[in-house]
Amino acid sequence: METRVAVIGIIVEEAESVESLNAILHEYGSYIIGRMGVPYRAKGINVISVAIDAPGDIISALAGKVGNLPGVSAKTAYSNVITAE
């Protein structure tokens, strides 16, 4: 199985989705390298970046679930680093 390193950029505009977002990230925790969240209080949003090392389908599934939450958008940037496990 091949894994890729990627970064998922997440913007949360609705605070009600934070609990669901954290549950999804916890579900994929074994693949997550690290995450950083920055509250932008002046705009009332949160900006989160999640670094992940996982198979492509796992990365897509995570980004899709996150992006389907109300008031949450997600975009993924993939590295060219592919590792065979």
Notes on the structure:
This protein is an alpha+beta fold. The protein is built from 2 helices and 4 strands. The chain has helices at 18-27, 56-67, and strands spanning 2-12, 32-40, 45-54, 72-84. The mean pLDDT is 96.
From the structure above, extract its key features:
85 residues, alpha+beta, Alpha-Beta Plaits, 51% strand
Task: Provide a quick synopsis of the model.
The protein contains two helices and four strands, in the order E-H-E-E-H-E.
Series of secondary-structure elements, N-terminal to C-terminal: EHEEHE
Which CATH class applies here? Alpha Beta
The averaged pLDDT comes out at: 96
Radius of gyration (CA) equals 13 Å
Helices and strands, with pairings:
Elements: E1 2-12, H1 18-27, E2 32-40, E3 45-54, H2 56-67, E4 72-84
